[in-house]
TrEMBL record:
Signal sequence range: none
Name by which UniProt lists this protein: Pentatricopeptide repeat-containing protein
Alphabetized Pfam families for the sequence: PPR (PF01535), PPR_2 (PF13041)
PPR repeats: 118-152, 219-253, 320-354
GO biological process terms, semicolon-separated: RNA modification
Keywords in alphabetical order: Repeat
One MF term in the entry's GO annotations: RNA binding
Length: 554
């Protein structure tokens, strides 16, 4: 029976409680302080005569307060002093409460005690793991749910799909989808929208469109979701057609709609569609909305119409920091560094203080030794705003120093960061990729990264392999062997290392091994052709050794 760490941490008190009747130990428990908005005075009304609704109310309040200590306190009281300790509904609420308090171990422990689990109970534990990003645990729970003959409902499906929006786990999601395909669940708007987001995220816009059509009733949320899918995949024509469909259906587009359509217009080829959309907005009351104008500034910048972007910015009478960030980003994207620097000071003169996005955009625009002085000046401003301790800004800072040929300062900045996520580690590793002696430093960094408890991802290893390619093939192989799941980028990096070091035979063997795990791309083809041109003898292998494999790549 789980009674939480309250008694585990107070062993002497726990031993005395077990040997006496429940009521005498209540004052002792009340003497232990609870934190947050739940205080011990809240528990004074608790006694053995309290009904189930009283306890459920307390559990829900503690969950909203996210007070794990108070949760343990109340749980202990109910276990020791009430007849409700095995009530399935109350136990389900405790699971939910522990999840809200991020007490995952306690949540799973209480969940295991529930004798009769229904779909509501399963959904609670799935939702907790979904919020914490523990998709592997969700997969295990979902399979257990099916084994115990509990049929999932739409909330089960949505929790699982939302947690698995990743192309590397698409197979699992497709298997889950196959289990309820062509049923009423697929036609549910909530489930259908989740499926559209899933397949859209992984690039299958055709299936996302089919799922949209299957939904008998469309609302603005489902339409916005599909527009966002089209935007992610660069299908601006389809996005605009769906926008017109929204108007025909009598829906009133909102800011999410506008943002989704504008996101689809992000190349010069999409400028015509973007102008058509802007023409529609110009006929509405949103024409002067600062938010809407700001997203059009961004759109024209992405579509290489810098003049229109500047014109819209000048039209803004009320410029907030988001508007300034938008025009600064446009100028940075076009490489107009002088304008970026000028706008940075102008925004402050007009009363807008730069935020983290401003600093990150400006820092990322600097590259080359000639920008180092400006970069150092921005660094001073960052420190004056006390943003230098922010992980994202810290990453942008050492990245700026690295691109400006001051790798020593970049490493010093990186080493001084207290908190580093995988993005920060990857950025530092990538900086060594341009240094001819960076391979040894990369191996050292990856060892430090793992010692710090940060797991390397495929970006880490791809960047690392690129850096190691200039040191030795042995270093590259050691790093390559650390990769458990290799995508085409990792394979290409390793093949590139072989090319740089002149190991044609090893590249040939790796290429054959690669084809057993993943499909090659154009980069693979270029690397292998380069190896072929340099050392034709490598390819003079027994008949059939490479012939069939080469045809696969072509």
């Amino acid at each position: 029976m789980v009674i939480g760490p309250l008694l585990r941490d107070n062993a002497r008190l726990g031993d005395s409680l077990i040997s006496v009747s429940p009521l005498p130990w209540k004052p002792a428990l009340l003497s232990l302080r609870c934190t947050s908005s739940c205080s011990t005075s809240n528990f004074e009304c608790l006694d053995t005569s309290a009904d189930l609704s009283t306890y459920t109310s307390f559990v829900q309040k503690i969950g909203h307060a996210k007070d794990l200590h108070c949760g343990h306190f109340l749980h202990t009281f109910i276990v020791m002093d009430t007849p409700f300790h095995s009530n399935n509904y109350l136990l389900s609420l405790f699971v939910q409460m522990y999840g809200q308090c991020r007490g995952l171990e306690d949540a799973h422990s209480v969940f295991a005690q529930i004798q009769e689990k229904n779909v509501y109970t399963w959904n609670i534990i799935l939702g907790i793991n979904a919020k914490l990003g523990m998709w592997w645990k969700m997969r295990e729970i979902y399979h257990r749910m099916l084994v115990e003959c509990c049929l999932p409902d739409k909330y089960t499906i949505v929790s699982n799909l939302s947690a698995h929006v990743d192309s590397e786990r698409l197979t699992e999601c497709k298997a889950m989808h196959a289990g309820f395909a062509n049923t009423h669940l697929e036609e549910d708007m909530v489930v259908g929208t989740a499926l559209m987001n899933l397949y859209g995220h992984t690039g299958d816009t055709n299936l996302a469109t089919i799922l949209f059509v299957k939904l008998h009733n469309h609302d603005l949320i489902t339409c916005n979701s599909l527009i966002a899918v089209y935007a992610q995949q660069g299908k601006e024509n389809e996005a605009f057609q769906l926008f017109e469909h929204i108007l025909q259906q009598g829906f009133l587009p909102n800011r999410v709609t506008f943002l989704a359509v504008v996101d689809a217009c992000n190349t010069s080829a999409a400028l015509f569609i973007g102008k058509k959309f802007h023409a529609y907005v110009s006929c509405t009351e949103l024409d002067l909305d600062p938010f809407v104008l700001t997203i059009f500034i961004s759109m024209y910048g992405k579509c290489d119409d810098l003049g229109m972007a500047v014109s819209l910015f000048d039209k803004l009478s009320d410029r907030h920091v988001v508007s300034w960030n938008s025009i600064i980003s446009v100028k940075a994207h076009k490489g107009h560094k002088d304008d970026v620097f000028r706008l940075f000071f102008q925004m402050q003169q007009e009363g807008s203080l730069p935020d983290k996005v401003t600093f990150r955009t400006i820092l990322c625009s600097f590259s080359g030794y000639s920008d180092l002085g400006r970069g150092k000046l921005i660094h001073i401003y960052v420190m004056s705003q006390k943003f230098d301790s922010d992980m994202i800004i810290g990453t942008a800072l050492f990245g700026m120093y690295g691109r400006c040929s001051d790798l020593e300062s970049a490493r010093r900045m990186f080493d001084g960061m207290i908190n580093k996520d995988v993005v920060a580690w990857n950025a530092m590793i990538a900086l060594y990729g341009g240094d001819e002696h960076g391979g040894n430093s990369v191996l050292e960094l990856i060892d430090q990264m793992q010692a710090a408890g940060v797991s390397a991802d495929k970006v880490t290893l791809t960047s690392g392999l690129s850096a190691c390619a200039g040191v030795s093939i042995e270093a590259a192989q050691r790093l390559f062997e650390k990769v458990k799941e290799r995508n085409v980028a990792v394979w290409n990096a390793m093949l590139g290392a072989c090319e740089n070091q002149g190991y044609g035979k090893l590249a040939c063997d790796l290429f054959v091994q690669m084809l057993e795990e993943t499909a090659p791309d154009k980069v693979t083809c270029l690397v292998m052709l380069s190896l072929y041109a340099v050392n034709v003898a490598v390819w003079m292998r027994p008949a059939g050794y490479l012939g069939g494999h080469w045809s696969k790549m072509l």
